[in-house]
C-alpha cells in the first residue's frame, strides 16, 4: 500500500495538468469544438462532459479494484493455494446489471441530443442555402435575395438554418467553433442549424470542408462572421443591392463625401452628411489572426505590381466583359455578367478573402489570382487569364488573355464592387 500512496499524487497531478491544458479557451485553441457558442455545441459538449464523467468513474472504480486484487491476492512464496471456485451468480448478475444501468445513463441523453440536433429548424430561422463547389462555397440568403461566396454572416440570437447541397462531388460543412458538421451529398439536401448565443458578440470563425473532394480539398475554406442583428440588417440590405455604378479610377476610388450638413427648418439636429451607404462589413481591423489566410504566393508567378496604381475601373469593366470573366461570374448590376459557374462577385470588395478563403483579398493577391489562378491553387477551375502564362488546358502559353496592365484595370473594377 506504501507504493500506491506514493504514486497517487503523481497520477493526480498528471490528470490536473491534462485537464488544465485542455481548457485554454478560444485564443489558444482557435478552432476548438469545445465551446459554448451555440445551442448546438452546448448540447454536444454537455453530452461529452457527461460521458467523460461516467467513463472516468467506471475507469477509476475498475482500476482500483484491479490493482487492489493484483496486490492483495498475488502469489506469495510458500503461500497457500488459492481457493478453487466455479461461478458466482450474485457477482455475475451484479456486473451485468451495473453496465446496463450505465449504458442507459449514456443512451438516454445521447439519443435525446441526436433527435434535438436532427430536428427541423424552429420557425423564424434564417435560411442560408450552402452550395459546395470544387473548391469554394456559395452562400445564398433566399429571404433577402443575396448571394455571396466564402464568407457567411449570421446574426447572433437567431437560428441559422443551413440548407446543404453540392454542385459536384461530396463536401462537408464545418465551423468547428460553432458546432455541427454535416455532409453535402449529391442529389440530397441536408440540413444543419444552430443559434449563435445572443451574447456572443461580433466575431469571426474558420470554416472548412471536411470531406475529401479532390485536389484543393484542403483549400476549400470559408469564414463565418457572427454579428449583431442591426449589423446583419445593414450588411444584408447592402448586399441585396446591385453593385454601385463606378466612374472612378483608383486615384478617386474613395467617393468624395460632401461635408455640408443642412439644418432643418424645424430646428431638429442637422441631417447627417450624405455618403453612399455601403452597409455593415466586418471590420478588417477586428479579424482575429487565426482567420487571416497565411498562404504564401507561388514564387514563379510574377506580376508587375507597379501597374496596379494605374488601374482604371471603367477600362477594367470592359476587360472583364471582353476577357471571358462573364463566362463564369455574375455581378448584379452588370447586365452582361449573369453566369453562376464561379463565385458571384456583386460585392466582391466587401470580402476579406479570395480564392476559397485561401488568400487575403488585396490587390497583390487579386492580380495574381486573375493572372493565373491555377498556379495559385492546385486544381483551381478558373481559367488562366494572363498573357504568356502556361495554360494546362491549352497545353501552351495564353495568347488571347490580359496583360498585367489590363489585369490592373480589372482589379480596379473589382475593387469598386463594394
Ligand atoms: Cu470540398 Cu473537401
Automatic annotation (TrEMBL):
Alphabetized GO MF terms: copper ion binding; cytochrome-c oxidase activity; heme binding; oxidoreductase activity
Name this protein carries in UniProt: Cytochrome c oxidase subunit 2
GO cellular component: plasma membrane
Organism: Pseudogemmatithrix spongiicola
Predominant location category: membrane
Catalytic activity of the protein: 4 Fe(II)-[cytochrome c] + O2 + 8 H(+)(in) = 4 Fe(III)-[cytochrome c] + 2 H2O + 4 H(+)(out)
Source organism, top-level taxon: Bacteria
Ranges that cross the membrane: 52-73, 85-108
Enzyme Commission number: 7.1.1.9
GO biological process, one term: ATP synthesis coupled electron transport
Amino acid at each position: 500500500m506504501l507504493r500506491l500512496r506514493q504514486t497517487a499524487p503523481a497520477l493526480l497531478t498528471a490528470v490536473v495538468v491534462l485537464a488544465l491544458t485542455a481548457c485554454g479557451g478560444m485564443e489558444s485553441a482557435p478552432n476548438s469544438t469545445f465551446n459554448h457558442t451555440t445551442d448546438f455545441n452546448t448540447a454536444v459538449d454537455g453530452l461529452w462532459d457527461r460521458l467523460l464523467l461516467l467513463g472516468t468513474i467506471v475507469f477509476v472504480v475498475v482500476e482500483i479494484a484491479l490493482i487492489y486484487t493484483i496486490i492483495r491476492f498475488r502469489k506469495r512464496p510458500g503461500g497457500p493455494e488459492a481457493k478453487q471456485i466455479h461461478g458466482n451468480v450474485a457477482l455475475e448478475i451484479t456486473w451485468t446489471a451495473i453496465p446496463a444501468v450505465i449504458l442507459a445513463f449514456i443512451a438516454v441523453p445521447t439519443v435525446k441530443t441526436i433527435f434535438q440536433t436532427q430536428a427541423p429548424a424552429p420557425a423564424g430561422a434564417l435560411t442560408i442555402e450552402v452550395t459546395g463547389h470544387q473548391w469554394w462555397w456559395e452562400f445564398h440568403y433566399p429571404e433577402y435575395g443575396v448571394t455571396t461566396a466564402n464568407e457567411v454572416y449570421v446574426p447572433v440570437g437567431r437560428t441559422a438554418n443551413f440548407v446543404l447541397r453540392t454542385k459536384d462531388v461530396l463536401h462537408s460543412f464545418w465551423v468547428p467553433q460553432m458546432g455541427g458538421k454535416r455532409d453535402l451529398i449529391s442529389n440530397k439536401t441536408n440540413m444543419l442549424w444552430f443559434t449563435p448565443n445572443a451574447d456572443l458578440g461580433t466575431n469571426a470563425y474558420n470554416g472548412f470542408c471536411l470531406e475529401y473532394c479532390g485536389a484543393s480539398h484542403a483549400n476549400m475554406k470559408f469564414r463565418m462572421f457572427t454579428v449583431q442583428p442591426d449589423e446583419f440588417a445593414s450588411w444584408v440590405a447592402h448586399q441585396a443591392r446591385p453593385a454601385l455604378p463606378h466612374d472612378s479610377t483608383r486615384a478617386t476610388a474613395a467617393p468624395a463625401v460632401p461635408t455640408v450638413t443642412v439644418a432643418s427648418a424645424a430646428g431638429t439636429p442637422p441631417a447627417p452628411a450624405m455618403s453612399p451607404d455601403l452597409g455593415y462589413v466586418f471590420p478588417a481591423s477586428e479579424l482575429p489572426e487565426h482567420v487571416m489566410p497565411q498562404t504564401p504566393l507561388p514564387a514563379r508567378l510574377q506580376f508587375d505590381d507597379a501597374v496596379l496604381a494605374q488601374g482604371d475601373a471603367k477600362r477594367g469593366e470592359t476587360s472583364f466583359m471582353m476577357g471571358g470573366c462573364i463566362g463564369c461570374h455574375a455581378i448584379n448590376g452588370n447586365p452582361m455578367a449573369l453566369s453562376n459557374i464561379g463565385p458571384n462577385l456583386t460585392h466582391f470588395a466587401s470580402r476579406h478573402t479570395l480564392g476559397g478563403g485561401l488568400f487575403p483579398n488585396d490587390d497583390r493577391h487579386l492580380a495574381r489570382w486573375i493572372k493565373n489562378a491555377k498556379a495559385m491553387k492546385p486544381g483551381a477551375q478558373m481559367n488562366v487569364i494572363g498573357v504568356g502564362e502556361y495554360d494546362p488546358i491549352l497545353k501552351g502559353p495564353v495568347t488571347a488573355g490580359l496583360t498585367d496592365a489590363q489585369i490592373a484595370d480589372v482589379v480596379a473594377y473589382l475593387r469598386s464592387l463594394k
